[in-house]
Amino acid sequence: MAEIIQRDGTWVFDGTLLRITPGLHRSVPLLRQAYGAIEVPLEAMAGISFAPERRTGWLRIQLRDGADPLLQATGGRLPGPTDPYRLAVDTSHGAVAEYIADEVRRALLLEQVPDGPTAGYLLPGPAVPVSVRCSDGTVSFDGQRIRIDWSNTSDRIKRVTGPRIFGLDALTGVEWLPNTGTEEGCLRFLTTHAAFSELPPEKDPYALDLWGNPRKDMLAVLVAAAVTSRLPHPWGRSRSGSGADDGAAAGRDRRGRPEVADHDAVLRRLREAGALHREGVLDEAEFTLVKRAVLRGFEDPPGG
C-alpha cells in the first residue's frame, strides 16, 4: 500500500483502488470538501504524473474519457485548485509522490488497463439527495427529479414562472460554466423543449445564473455531476437502472401529466407575466416562453 498525506489531502493506493480524501485546512476549496472522498478504481485511470517544482510539486492522476461524471459535467473547466485529481506535494515529500506514481504505473501495466474512452461511468458521482444554494436560487436533486426555487434577486421572468420541477426524462444534458469572479457562470439544464436554451441564463427558467460568491456558486457542480451520472452515457450507455423511468412516472398524475402547484398559483403567474408584458418588461418572444414554462405543468412535454 502506498500513502501520501499532505495539507491538500491524502492519497492511498492499494494496488486496485486510489482513495482521495480532501484535506481539512481552510485553504482547501469548499467544493472539494463538500464532494468528500473519491474512490478511483484502477480501470478508470489512464495515467499518473508527478511534476516536482521549487517549493511545491504536483501529483496528478489522469482519468479515461467518460469514466467520471464530474469531469464529464465540468468539461475540463474546473479551476486548478478545485480539481480533486491533483495533489499539492511539499518538496520534502517528493520521493513519496514518485513512489505512488510508480506503483500506479506498475499496476496499470500489469493489469493492461486501456487508456481509451470508457463505455460507462466507472465512478458514481456525488451522493443524492443533494441541494445547493447559490446566487440565483436553490437547486435540489433527489436522484429522480430536479427542483429549482428562485431567490428574491432572480430575474422577474423566473420568479413569474415559479419553482421548476422536472424529471430526468425531460433532459438532454447539463451545461456548467464556472463563476470566476470576473465572468458570470451558469448551471443550465438542457431540456427537450429547446426554445428555452435560446434565452440568456439570467432569463432561462431551466438555468441558474451564477453571479455571486464564486466559492459558494462552485457547489453547483455537485448537482451537475449528480445529474450527469444518471443521464445516458455520452458513448451510448442507457440510463442507470430503472430509477429515471420510475422518477418520471412518480411525478405524473393519473392522466400522465406532471404534478404541479394548484391552478390558482398558475393563473396568478400568468397574470403577472401578462402585466410584465404590458409594461414592456417582457417582449413578445419572452412572454411566449414564460407562458410555455408556466403551462408546461399542465401539458405533456413535446414529444411526450
Describe the structure.
The chain is an alpha+beta fold. The protein has nine helices and 14 strands. The strands form four sheets. A four-stranded antiparallel beta sheet has the order 1-2-3-4. The chain has a four-stranded antiparallel beta sheet with strand order 8-9-10-11. α8 (263-278) packs antiparallel against α9. The longest helix has 18 residues, at 94-111. The chain starts with a strand and ends in a 9-residue tail after the last helix. The model is unreliable at 237-261 and 298-304 (pLDDT under 50).
Show unreliable segments: 237-261, 298-304
* Strand segment tally: 14
- What profile does the largest beta sheet have? 4 strands, antiparallel
Distance between the termini: 52 Å
Radius of gyration over C-alpha positions, nearest whole angstrom: 22 Å
Helix content: 25-40%
What is the overall silhouette?
Answer: elongated
Strand order of the largest sheet: 1-2-3-4
State the order of secondary-structure elements, H for helix, E for strand: EEEHEEEHEHEEEHEEEEHHHHH
- Oligomer state of the chains in this structure: single chain
How many H/I helices? 9
